Q: What sequence folds into this?
C-alpha cells in the first residue's frame, strides 16, 4: 500500500514564498503584509526618484555607497520590499542577495495611487521596526515630503514634515545635505 507523502513537513512557508518571488517573478515584485504585487512605476514616479538620486549622488559616492531599488527582506514577516530608492554600502551591494532594512542608510518610497496608504502607514511602520535609519516618504498624492528618523519597534520617534513640495528638507548625517524638493 502506497501512502501520500506530506511535502509540507519541514517547509518554511515564508522562505518558500520569498524564494518564489526572487526566482519566478519580475524585478519589481514585492510582498506587503502577505499581498503580492508587481510594481510598475510611471515616468513621473521615476522622475521623482531620479531627482533625489541626482542630488544625493555626490555624497553617496563619498560614503562609498550605491543607490538602487534592490530587494529588502523583512525576516519573520510576510514582507519583501522593493523600495523606489535605497542607499546601500557598496560592500553589501555585492552578491545579489536581499538586504535587511537596517543595512541601508536611506530608504525612499514615492507614492502612487495604488500604493499610497501602504507607503504612508505599513512600510513606515515596518521600516522602523526593522531598523531602516532614515525613511523619506515622497507623497505625490499630497504633494509633500516627510523624513522619518530614529527607528524603533513602535515606529520612528523623529518626524520632519510633511513639507509641501518646494520646501528644502535636510537629510541628516551621514548625508548632511539639503534636498531640493521643488522638482518632485
A:
Amino acid at each position: 500500500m502506497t501512502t501520500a507523502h506530506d511535502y509540507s513537513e519541514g517547509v518554511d512557508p515564508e522562505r518558500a514564498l520569498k524564494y518564489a518571488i526572487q526566482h519566478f517573478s519580475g524585478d519589481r515584485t514585492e510582498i506587503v503584509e502577505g499581498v503580492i504585487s508587481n510594481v510598475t512605476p510611471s515616468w513621473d514616479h521615476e522622475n521623482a526618484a531620479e531627482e533625489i538620486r541626482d542630488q544625493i549622488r555626490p555624497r553617496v559616492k563619498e560614503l562609498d555607497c550605491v543607490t538602487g531599488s534592490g530587494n529588502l527582506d523583512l525576516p519573520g514577516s510576510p514582507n519583501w520590499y522593493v523600495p523606489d530608492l535605497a542607499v546601500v554600502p557598496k560592500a553589501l551591494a555585492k552578491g545579489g542577495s536581499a538586504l535587511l532594512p537596517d543595512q541601508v542608510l536611506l530608504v525612499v518610497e514615492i507614492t502612487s495611487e495604488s500604493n499610497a496608504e501602504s507607503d504612508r502607514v505599513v512600510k513606515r511602520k515596518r521600516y522602523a521596526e526593522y531598523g531602516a535609519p532614515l525613511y523619506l516618504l515622497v507623497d505625490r498624492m499630497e504633494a509633500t515630503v516627510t523624513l522619518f528618523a530614529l527607528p524603533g519597534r513602535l515606529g520612528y520617534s523623529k518626524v520632519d514634515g510633511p513639507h509641501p513640495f518646494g520646501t528644502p528638507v535636510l537629510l541628516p548625517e551621514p548625508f548632511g545635505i539639503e534636498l531640493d524638493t521643488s522638482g518632485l
Notes: The chain has a mean pLDDT of 87.
